[in-house]
Design brief:
Helices cover 40% and strands 17% of the residues. It has helices spanning 5-9, 37-50, 60-80, 94-109, 128-137, 154-160, 183-192, 212-215, 240-245, 280-294, 298-316, 344-353, 366-371, 388-405, and strands spanning 18-19, 22-23, 25-26, 88-91, 115-119, 140-144, 165-171, 196-200, 219-223, 234-238, 256-259, 264-266, 322-325, 334-339, 356-357, 359-361, 377-381.
Length: 406
């Protein structure tokens, strides 16, 4: 069975955009992915046919909206192979998901002198919440170093683990380097010392299947907008016994059983973690994005993305002065690089004039960039709707930039 990328591209309306006289070459998928017509139609349908608040209404639209919202929870649970739908908590995205776990689990179970381990390649969203928690609790934050190839130093991780380790929170696939980390090994080693494990899956779920039961992680978080779904929505998978043991993250409507001025009692998970009116349309749109993805042959998608990665690596290395960061053999389809004589922001500006969208900066991974002695990189990140021809266009534009700034 062959992969027809031209047919796939027709399902993403924005890909037909022109930037001036040039066709859009969208290579910023690690920042956010584009949306297929199925997701766009689902959002329009919700607001034109279903719009109502959920859980508390008894009228036709409220019941319809509630059913769609809870059906989406089942879709996400099945997507991750959660043991039950109630292990899925809807949040605004990966950032809020990590903050929720750090605040709720961390405040209850992490104490003075305990240790939290993260890695050198974490997004700021998986650094700052743990720093805040450690500062508040008097706990200690430890960091798994990364080597020159952009891989975690697992021997160093072994040395960091101890009976003081209460949480290990690491990224599945790096947004800055593309590295896919040895998550199963990290989880198993962490559990051996009694630590819980959170996995930042923002850059993983759009590229390859994830089975939380097989991984045996305690928490897994991701964002809908990096999964061809809506912005402002995401999900946490949490083992149900852990969610049951955790206090609410926020207080408000719909997360309670009973409120008096003397005492409030809370719903069972996931309800206790979903205070207020959620992004109902976004949740439904995320479920449609998952169904769209699952209806494709994911093995073929992965094969296509791996071909794009290999093609991009080969073509970019033709450009004099290029240095690629993150050379692990196990990567998602992303290439981060610098070009001698040209600042990444200048590169991105010139590329934009050719209709090419990339990302330039520290990608919310300043400590990682400091480890390699740089302040910024340019990043071209690919999805299954990208093509070899788009990578060739990028390469030729970079060759012109090299001549311009030489």
């Amino acid at each position: 069975m062959s992969f027809d990328v031209s047919k796939i591209r027709q399902e993403f309306p924005i890909l037909s955009t022109r930037v001036g006289q040039k066709p859009l070459v969208y290579l910023d998928n690690a920042a956010t992915t584009q949306k297929p017509r199925a997701v766009i139609d689902a959002l329009e349908s919700y607001y034109t046919e279903t719009n109502a608040n959920i859980h508390r209404g008894v009228h036709f639209l409220a019941e319809k909206a509630t059913a769609a919202y809870e059906e989406a929870r089942g879709v996400v649970g099945k997507f991750l192979n959660a043991a039950r739908a109630e292990e899925i908590v809807f949040v605004r995205g990966t950032t809020e998901g990590i903050n929720l776990v750090a605040s709720s689990f961390g405040n209850k179970f992490i104490a003075e002198g305990d240790e939290v381990i993260i890695s050198a390649m974490e997004h700021h969203a998986n650094i700052v919440p743990w720093q805040l928690l450690c500062e508040e609790k008097g706990a200690h934050l430890k960091v798994i170093p990364a080597d020159e190839n952009g891989e975690l130093e697992m021997d160093a991780f072994d040395q960091l683990l101890s009976d003081k380790t209460k949480m290990v929170s690491v990224v599945h696939a790096s947004n800055a380097l593309g590295t896919i980390n040895p998550i199963k090994s990290i989880i198993d080693k962490s559990h051996a010392v009694g630590a819980r494990v959170l996995i930042d899956g923002a850059q993983a779920v759009g590229h390859f299947p994830v089975d939380v039961q097989k991984l045996n992680c305690d928490f897994f978080v991701f964002s809908g907008h990096k999964l061809f779904g809506s912005t402002g929505v995401g999900a946490i998978y949490g083992r149900f016994d852990l969610l049951e043991s955790m206090p609410p993250y926020q207080g408000g409507g719909d997360m309670i059983n009973e409120v008096t001025f003397e005492k409030t009692t809370y719903k069972e998970p996931p309800g206790r973690f979903e205070a207020g009116t959620p992004n109902i349309a976004g949740v439904i749109g995320m479920a449609r994005a998952i169904e769209y993805l699952e209806n494709l042959d994911r093995a073929l998608l992965l094969q296509h993305e791996e071909d794009l990665l290999h093609h991009a690596t080969a073509r970019l290395n033709e450009v004099e002065g290029i240095k690629i960061y993150g050379t692990s053999k196990n990567k998602v389809s992303l290439v981060a690089f610098t070009l001698e004589g040209s600042h990444p922001h200048d590169m991105a500006t010139v590329l934009d004039a050719d209709g090419i969208a990339i990302r330039a900066g520290h990608h919310c991974t300043q400590p990682l960039h400091s480890r390699y002695g740089i302040t910024a990189t340019a990043r071209a990140s690919f999805a299954f709707y990208n093509t070899r021809e788009e990578i060739d266009i990028l390469t030729e534009s970079l060759k012109k930039i090299q001549l311009l700034f030489a």
